[in-house]
Write a structure and sequence with these properties.
Layout lengths: L27 H6 L2 E5 L2 E6 L6 E3 L4 E2 L1 H19 L7 E9 L8 E10 L3 E9 L8 E8 L2
Antiparallel strand pairs: 1-2, 2-6, 3-4, 5-8, 6-7, 7-8
């Protein structure tokens, strides 16, 4: 199987809704991050296990902001793929991340909410937390090209 780059993510086929782990199999960076998806009913929770190579600032130590942003974008893509029947995985066209506090050297979790799916654009919001869901470390708003 050939390696996929971020340029051809739209060529990926979304899997059946019942297998959340299959959503990540063709995204190499998700494997590098060891992202796991847990589906309970229609609620998808993403899990980013802590690993030393994810540290961006070793003095604190704090998770790298790019790791947190990528984790939330992957969460948004997975939730959107589960939400709709697309003939391709929607491409991100606008991503806005708000970093609210430092990500500690702990496991991180995220949940996405699909706000709206139109003919060509979908809007998704994600919240990432570590110890307490009511104290997010970052949030994301993204728009995806669906058509």
């Amino acid at each position: 199987m050939e390696k996929l780059s971020t340029d051809n993510l739209s060529a990926l086929q979304p899997p059946a809704k019942c297998d959340p782990d299959a959503l990540l199999k063709d995204i190499p960076f998700a494997a590098f991050l060891s992202v796991r998806l847990n589906l309970a009913g229609d609620k998808l929770t993403a899990h980013l296990p802590f690993a030393p190579h994810l540290i961006g600032n070793p003095m604190i130590p704090a998770l790298h902001g790019g790791v947190i942003g990528a984790f939330m974008e992957i969460t948004a893509m997975a939730q959107l793929a589960l939400h709709g029947n697309f003939d391709h995985i929607p491409k991100p066209i606008d991503v806005n991340v708000q970093y609210l506090r430092s990500g500690k050297s702990l496991d991180t979790y995220a949940r996405a909410v699909v706000k709206r799916v139109g003919r060509t654009i979908a809007s998704v919001e994600v919240s990432a937390w570590q110890e307490n869901r009511q104290s997010p470390i970052a949030t994301l708003q993204a728009h995806f090209l669906t058509g």
